Amino acid sequence: MTSTETSGSGDLARTLDLLWDSGPRPSRGPKPGLTLDRIVEAAIEVADSEGLAAVTMRRVATQLGTGTMSLYRYLPGKAELLDVMLDRVQQPVAEPDLNGDWRGALEAMAHRGLALFRRHPWLVEVNQTRPVLGPSAVEGMELFLTAIRPMGLPDRELISVVILIDGYVGSAARTQLFAQEAERKTGLTNQEFWDAQAPRLEVAMASGRYPVMSSLDDDSFDATFDHFDFGLQRILDGLEHYVAQRKKHGAR
């Protein structure tokens, strides 16, 4: 999996119309029952099952049982469709009242973010450095900032917290999904892959050239260890310390 698409690469004005439902309606006799929502849902189904590269206007039309040209009555092309897909799959979930527990909110959001990538693996193939902000993105940010505002940080630092957690989740998701992709492409399970290297590595460790590596505990590379949660908790520990220090010194 590599980045194959870039958000915001289509007609930006038309995309914003589609996202915010402010553009012109199809007026040339669209197929009964065909709507933008159905087109987007079909495109997401194709991406989930076949990958992002499979999402073409022709393939989506086939999924819907209609002609390709009928889709162009609703949107200009794949670039604009992709941005609507991105906003659609990221519809936020309202946070329960956590009574100011910003750490719990960040933890829940991070785990939901990882789950989102697992449901829609094609998300790792999209460069979202410049996302087109639709209703889901804006509402999600509103909920996120509301939940972490009790941190008491300046607004620019709250935004930095959002970027920090988002970056961590995205990186972890890529690592996990790339590992699954490697297994599918090679036909080797993760265990088989490392077992194949074991004889050479045992000789290397016995050579004395790698004293620290050879001294590691037997369970150092235990595949069941939750690296994602370990890293997340350390990030949250750091943020908690930073918030406490700012409050201690009365910084704003």
Automatic annotation (TrEMBL):
Q: Which InterPro entries match?
A: Homeodomain-like_sf, HTH-type_TetR-like_transc_reg, HTH_TetR, Repressor_TetR_C, Tet_transcr_reg_TetR-rel_C_sf
**UniProt name for this protein:** TetR/AcrR family transcriptional regulator
Mind listing the UniProt keywords for this protein, alphabetically? DNA-binding, Transcription, Transcription regulation
Which Gene3D superfamilies does this UniProt record tie to the protein? Homeodomain-like, Tetracycline Repressor, domain 2
Q: Boundaries of each HTH tetR-type domain copy?
A: 33-93
Q: Signal sequence span per UniProt?
A: none
Pfam families, per this entry? TetR_C_1 (PF02909), TetR_N (PF00440)
Q: Which domain of life is it from?
A: Bacteria
Q: Which organism is it from?
A: Nocardia suismassiliense
